[in-house]
Write a structure and sequence with these properties.
eight-stranded mixed beta barrel, Alpha-Beta Plaits, TIM Barrel, binds calcium ion, six-stranded mixed beta sheet, binds ligand C2E, Rossmann fold, 3 domains, globular
């Protein structure tokens, strides 16, 4: 049996957080005793009761993270996977003995230095000697004395923290070193595989280092390196690089010192390698100004090479090598600059930089516009609402669709002003329709970035007041996946939005986590079945069953159901049959400018206020 994190005070941290608590995988300094409490303590013992007693003693001593393993056969794999900071290992166990596990640990390159305290009920001197001989760090006799236990664990952890500090950190800058970088890189690659995400290695070289060293000597160059490390660290830490998640994943970007004038930034959990260009650009900028060394001012521009996993390489060695090669290319092009290893990525990243600059002007230059797509009541066949969909008309007349610029706007933060513009414009249109006696609803899409920005409720409230609309005709569409990022926060914000009188719709339903059970935890008015279900509707009985089930369930929860992407009469017929409320799609109309919506509304007569 494997029991993870039995402790009640803390939510179970992921393998990553557990690992990051204190072992070298962490990249954090943990050399003070206070932080030892964060250490992950693993116990392997065939008697659960012993482990529980030991855990209680250690909890009293302030420790919080425990992993208990009862089955000695899975112990070794768990140790490798979880990498605890210390192991309390029972000697006598069925199947696999403590000695056997210890022997395997001491011969494994990744965990051979793991501190192991052997728990033994035999007090024979010979067994103890044998344990020490096999590499046990310390041993304890059962039954365990609480104060002796706490002391031994503390001393062992303190010794380990000190050794880690020597082994894994650079004394000049206090940054984690190459060894830790490689360890962490390997782990991050596995994580990327599991999560289907990307990672990037930014190799940062300070080109003028040798010249400075030769001219001014080690003291000055040490000072410069120290200051440079701080500047780079500040770029890496900047919070706006990290996504909207509020889970405190501040270590998605980590800085290491690899050599005299070489640093590396490991960027994890990226959607694409190109996203790391932003950190690179920031570092380059930070390195532009001169450094104050005691006798002089020194310039130390950087070159950066970027290689991505899994795009560019499949193992640590070639990945790091490719980042170095890319860095050399950047240097060849003449000093301060960054290069991706793959030429396609260089092109993509350039395009993105251009697009971001253009998008910035799009808001000011009135290049954005809203199209509206009718939402039709299935029973009456009348338009009861519209969804506002953004378009970007470039000065040359080219029309850009949101899929091409919304992700970029989210990444760059531009989505905030852009989203505000959309909301204001849509509400102004809604006010106009209401003044004309057209009581249709208007739906606006909100991105996750806006949702988690912190002031959404206030800004929506302001727009509602300024446009003097009846807010019950405003629907805010939020994609399903956003709900799951931070459910507590989501529930709070949704409640706030609903409190303004507006309606909430869960967009793209079915594409995210799709556990129907959580529908009841969110304040909601409407569910939009994702287009992908509609595509298969005519051919797939499973899709039919799914859509029927969603409609049925949503009605049980008093939610209106809208089917999006309805393209043909057969789909509509099916939806009619199962009692779906509204539909939206090319069958009725594509998204069109207001000028084309108005005649549609006029021809169906006035839609009364309800
Ligand atoms: P969405 O919210 O799921 O919007 C529906 C998309 O499906 C629209 O694409 C619409 O043109 C398209 N569509 C509608 N009916 C059909 C159909 O019958 N068949 C097919 N194949 N497609 C149909 P569009 O306008 O390109 O928007 C794409 C996405 O961009 C939207 O997906 C939404 O997530 C996002 N978006 C659009 N406007 C905004 C905005 O103002 N703010 C934010 N944050 N996101 C927006
Ligand atoms: Ca939508
Ligand atoms: Ca949708």
């Amino acid at each position: 049996m494997f029991i993870e994190q039995r402790n009640q005070h803390f939510p179970p941290p992921s393998a990553q957080t557990a690992r990051e608590s204190s072992n070298p995988g962490a990249g954090k300094r943990d050399d003070n005793l206070a932080s030892l409490a964060n250490a992950t303590i693993m116990m392997v013992d065939d008697e659960p009761i012993t482990m529980e007693v030991v855990q209680t003693f250690l909890e009293d001593a302030g420790y919080e993270r425990f992993q208990l393993i009862e089955d000695s056969r899975i112990a070794f794999d768990k140790i490798l996977e979880e990498r605890p900071d210390i192991l309390l290992l029972d000697l006598m166990m069925p199947h696999v003995s403590g000695f056997e596990i210890l022997e395997k640990i001491r011969t494994h390159p990744h965990i051979k230095h793991l501190p192991v305290i052997m728990l033994t009920s035999s007090s024979e001197a010979e067994t103890k000697l044998q344990a020490l001989d096999k590499g046990a760090t310390d041993f304890l006799a059962k039954p365990v004395d609480p104060s002796e236990l706490a002391l031994r664990v503390r001393n062992t952890l303190a010794a380990k923290a000190y050794q880690d500090q020597l082994a894994y950190y650079d004394p000049l800058t206090n940054l984690p070193n190459r060894r830790l970088f490689l360890d962490r890189l390997e782990w991050s690659m596995q994580q990327a595989d599991r999560q289907n995400s990307h990672l990037a290695v930014l190799h940062v070289a300070l080109n003028q280092f040798k010249r400075v060293y030769d001219n001014f000597g080690p003291r000055v160059s040490d000072q410069v390196i120290k200051q440079a490390a701080i500047r780079i660290q500040n770029c890496v830490r900047s919070s706006d690089l990290v996504g909207h998640d509020s889970t405190g994943e501040s270590d998605r970007y980590m800085l290491y010192r690899l050599g005299a004038n070489e640093f590396s930034v490991l960027c994890t959990q990226l959607q694409q390698t190109e996203s790391s260009a932003k950190v690179a650009a920031r570092i380059l900028e930070a390195m532009q100004s001169s450094f104050d060394a005691e006798v002089t001012e020194v310039l130390m521009p950087a070159s950066i090479g970027i290689a991505g996993y899994p795009g560019d390489a499949h193992d640590i060695e070639s990945l790091t090598q490719k980042a170095v090669i890319a860095c050399a290319q950047a240097e060849e092009k003449g000093g301060s600059g960054f290069e991706f290893y793959s030429s396609q990525m260089n092109i993509n990243s350039l395009q993105r930089i251009h697009m971001e600059a253009n998008l910035r002007h799009a808001v000011e230059n009135n290049e954005l516009l809203l199209y509206y797509q009718p939402k039709v009541n299935i029973k009456s066949g009348l338009i009861v609402g519209v969804e506002a969909l953004i378009r970007w008309r470039k000065p040359d007349g080219e029309m850009v669709f949101p899929d091409q610029f919304i992700p970029l706007a989210e990444e760059s933060g531009l989505i905030i002003p852009l989203g505000e513009w959309v909301l204001k414009t849509a509400c102004a249109q809604l006010a106009l329709w209401q003044a004309q006696g057209n009581w249709i609803s208007v739906a606006v899409n909100l991105s996750a970035k806006q949702f988690y920005a912190g002031n959404l409720v206030e800004s929506v409230s302001r727009v509602i007041n300024e446009s003097s609309i009846d807010p019950s005709y405003l629907t805010l569409e939020l994609t399903e996946s956003l709900f799951m990022d931070d459910t507590t926060l989501a529930v709070g914000t949704l409640g706030g939005l609903m409190g303004l009188g507006s309606k909430i719709s869960m967009d793209d339903f079915g594409t995210g986590y799709s556990s129907l059970g959580y529908l009841k935890s969110f304040p909601l008015n409407e569910l939009k079945i994702d287009r992908s279900f509609l595509t298969g509707l005519n051919a797939s009985r499973q899709d039919q069953a799914l859509v029927s089930a969603i409609v049925y369930l949503a009605h049980e929860f008093d939610l209106k159901v809208v089917a999006e992407g309805v393209e043909d009469a057969a789909q509509l017929k099916f939806l009619t049959g199962i009692g779906c409320d509204q539909y939206q799609g090319y069958l009725f109309s594509k998204p069109v400018p207001v000028a084309e919506i108005d005649p549609m509304l006029a021809s169906q007569g006035i839609q009364r206020r309800v």
